[in-house]
Amino acid sequence: MGTWERRNLERWSKNIENFASLDTESGAKYPPALSAWVHELETDLLLQRTKPTRADAVIDLGAGGGRFSTFFAPRCGRVTAVEPSDLIGVLRANAAPFANIECVRQRIQDIAFNGEFTIALISGVLLNMPHEAAKLCLRLAAKALKPGGMLVLREPVARGGLVNVNWQYYRQGTEPRISDDSFFEYYRDPSFYRQACASHGLRHRETVISHAPVFHFLPESVPFRETLRNVVPFLIQSPRYRPLMKGYNALMRHPYALVMDLLKKKTMSFHFFIKERGNA
Q: What pLDDT was estimated at residue 279?
């Protein structure tokens, strides 16, 4: 196990309290109401795109606290939730009410499934991996899928690529050497995932941004910052305005994605791929 991997496992293991206290925690550390709202928007999107049935078998690679595993469990035949960090304890606790979730503590790079699943999900995992390790995970996820199965990636991307090294942002290719002690995240150009997946028989179907802006992570220099940060939580907790917020998300999701792409800014996005038939 490389130093970067040990550091990532330590980092996620330190988040046990956040994941244990909030079953919709994604790692973004949103306040509870906003976390639940983003989770609802993302699972609505998953429901629309994957259309799960009891005939489906799902593998959740890097399952964290299990928010997507527990979403799929009532809708699918079985779910295999793979988590390498100490979050496995939270995952097992959240999965306990579901008899059809199997929790496995294992590195994604060590899985050895072959054509067993109809849906594979990787969420917020590959950004913390060097490129070759990310490609290996994509290869193993493709191998785990049945022909015609769907791979869902939920990963941040940025046109041209961005790299976060110790919370300093660089265009990909201009970043300093990433040492063993460095914190890093890759917000890759979407073409990285399309090309890597295509090499393993996965056809890109669609990329959709996670959600319209919720104005939580704003620079301190933004005028009326705290007011803006409180607008969405207030509206989504109001029975009167909540349906309007669903409409806002549907209306603004695509334009927001276009603007962020033009600005070459990172966006958390869902990337959907289909395993071509004839690819074992």
A: 67
